[in-house]
Amino acid sequence: MSSRLLNNTAYSLLIIIIKRGKGSKVLEFVYDMGARDASCFIGKGTVKNKFLQIIEMDEVDKEVVLIIVPSDREAEFLERLNIKFHLERKNHGIAFTIPLAGTMKMNTDAAIQWPENCGSDSANQDYTALFMVADKGEGEKIIQVCHDAGYYGGTIIKAHGTACQSSIILDMMVEREREAVLMLVPTKLADKLTPLLGGYVTCADFFIKMDVSRTIGLFQNDKSYEVVEK
Amino acid sequence: MNAIFSKFKEVLYSVLPITIIVLVLHFTLTPLDAQIMIKFIIGTVLMLAGIPLFLLGIDISVTPIGERLSEVLVKSNKLWLILLGGGLLGFVVTVAEPDVHILAGQVRAVTNGSFNSELMILLVCIGIGAMVSVGIFKIIKNIYLNRFMTVVYLIILILGCFTQSDFLALAFDVSGNTTGSVSVPFILAIAVGISSMTRSNEKEGHDGFGILGIASAGAVVAVMLQGIFTRADLLDESLAVSAAADGSVLGYYVVNMIQYAKEALIVVLPILVIYMVIDLIWIKTPAYKLKRILVGIIYTYIGLVVFLMGINTGFIDASRQVGSQIAALGKPWLLVLVGMLFGMITIPAEPSVHVLTRQIEDNTAGSIKTLTVMLALCLGVAAAAGLSMLRILVPWLQLWHVLLPGMVIAVVLSYIVPDIFVGIAYDSGGVAAGTMTSVFVLPFAQGAAEYIPSASIVKDGFGIIALVAMTPLIAVQLLGLIYKLKPHPLMIEEGETDADMEDVKYHE
Fold first, then answer.
1. Whole-angstrom Cα distance, residue B469 to residue B236?
2. Which residues in B have their CB inside 8 Å of a CB on A?
3. What is the dotted CATH code of the domain comprising A7-221?
């Protein structure tokens, strides 16, 4: 059994959103650092640039890498990823961590002790991660709604299937095509976006907010935080 | 680092090999005329400007249009409507494809009008429309592609026994040519759209791949049938080589631009009109999305005009001259070698290949990488170009000597390799034999054939596209075989046992 290996460390989910094609390199890099639970999927991201939006060139291909890391090594991971992939430079990608209440690697004691044992001592209250899943095509709408509310940005990931309703086409049960949207927004804005987005959420959709402990590579200037009341 | 810039970088890497190799040949073996060289350089620059814009336009307009239309069809929930609609869309985009008309013109010239080329266009388009329809049926009913294609190839084989060898070559050439720069992304988007709409727990979502192979087979059957019933002969006369326009260089480009502007309009307009009509009635796209699609269509159009102009003015003459000069050197092995090299470097520059690899990456969540597929395609087409050169050099080597074993291998492999690779393989056949092949590999072969007494430009010229469309089937499936036999290094590492975990730094 592997349980003897488990200690009381808590784990965090490290999410990196990076240019398409770099994902595999990130995976290899974190593997060398000792992370074993990691996966990469592809998504579409947005660039905040008025001119590019007008000429419809504001979309970029991104890859989203999820890595489970021990909370006490969070900072080390972020730092070394930053050195390797230059996340501190503009448009080179972003990375953030989310404290996890449990993973298969944590033993029961560790889960009970959470969040005291969580290494994310420097909990970052400035940002909140929003994660929404909706029907295909809604992802752009969600980003558009946030854009109207003063925040621009987000990554759309392909998904499929619901637990709520399934459609029947030509006498076949088919899964719906879905889209997931991952956004990292300033906390004070997130509170205002929540009711706005709530209006778009149907029973089959889901919408969660997650605390973020550390972030790197974010370049929203303060002016863009101001919420435009509709 | 925005969309157009990253596309530009991608295209730059793809076009560089062609430029470098032609330049190297120019300074070593085959000094080209100054005028041809200048046009080649201008052509390269136009290509660099055109393809990124075109690809971006496809990304934000043609692909979404195809997906949206397939959504409308599927939501109608009537099988006959889906099949009819899909077939009609396939028919319309093929009619609009300029390559089909160019080829028809060539056929008219070499058969002295005894072969009804208008009828051929009509039959080919009906064939493709019908096969797109059948392909959609295959997707919905979840029929395995390998069994499906085995049946289709058997039909082709039986028809092939009754067809003259010249028409055999012509039929396969037409099939390679009909899947052009705009119809590829459009038909692919429709198939992939329908496929992912009808995804369920019994069925994978990426069986939309393979539709281009199926559609191409429709064209083959159509031309073969016409060949059997008309019994026209191909005349052995030289193709009229388009005379270089006299007068100023600027005038030359203006004339060409007007011509390609017209051609590209015929290609793009039907798709836009169909979409707008259906949008008004059923979809009612929100304004911001509609704007995106319109802007995308404009990008596609401008990109296509610039790209067509670049390759048609700059590449044909350069490649033809390299071909004849290499042949004049009297070293057969060199001709085969350079032919293979040309085949290899054509593939990365072909826009349709980028469209296909992108769809693959999107639909396999990035697990099949662009570069890997492209490498397989390059090797496949290099083999095809090499074999074509051999056919020019060795008179007794007939097209079917290569085509038949190739297809048998492809069909056998399709029962061994993972399904997704079978689909990709059949698609890449149609994709590889695109515009770039006709302006780069074909003129090279024709140039070489001019110098070799035993070769005929017409007979050896036809059949090259057929080979280019066939070898990727084998190459990509072999890639699939490699994937199957040898898991990716990262996959092995993920499968580590508990014992290995003790070494992991986490648990020290």
1. 24
2. 1-4, 6, 56, 59-60, 74-75, 77, 79, 82, 140, 196-201, 205, 286, 288-289, 291-292, 295-296, 361-362, 365-366, 490, 493-494, 496, 498, 501-502, 504-507
3. 3.30.70.120
Å from B146 to nearest chain A CA?
A: 23
Instruction: Find chain A residues with C-beta within 8 A of B197's C-beta.
Output: 169, 174, 177
Q: Does residue B276 fall inside a structural domain? A: yes
What is the total residue count of chain B? Answer: 508
- Does any domain span residue B50? yes
Q: Which helix (H) or strand (E) holds B360?
A: helix B351-363
Q: Which residue of B has its CA nearest to A22?
A: B366
How far is A212 from chain B, CA to nearest CA, in Å? Answer: 22
Distances (CA, A) of B335 to A78, B353, B387: 54, 26, 11
Would you call B366 and A40 a contact, using CB atoms and an 8 Å cutoff? yes
Name which of B6, B200, B506 is nearest A60 (Cβ-Cβ): B6
Contact B388, B448 (CB under 8 A): no
Q: List the single residue in B75, B82, B505 with the smallest CB-CB distance to A34.
A: B505
pLDDT the model gives residue B235:
55
Alpha-helical runs (H) found in B97-116: 98-110
Task: Work out how many domains chain B is built from and give that number.
Answer: 1
> Is residue B375 assigned to a domain?
yes
Q: How far apart are CA A119 and CA A114, in angstroms?
A: 10
Please report, in tens digits, the pLDDT of each residue of chain A (230 residues total). 444 455 667 788 899 998 888 888 899 898 888 888 888 888 888 777 777 777 877 788 888 999 988 888 888 888 899 888 888 777 788 888 888 776 766 666 666 666 666 655 555 567 888 888 888 878 888 888 887 777 777 888 888 777 666 667 777 777 777 888 888 888 888 888 888 887 776 666 778 888 888 888 776 544 443 333 32
**Three-state DSSP class for residue A184:** strand
Q: What gap in Å lies between CA A13 and CA A187, rounded to an integer?
A: 19
The Cα A88–Cα B18 span in angstroms is 37
* Residue B413 falls inside a structural domain: yes
The whole domain housing B133 covers 16-485
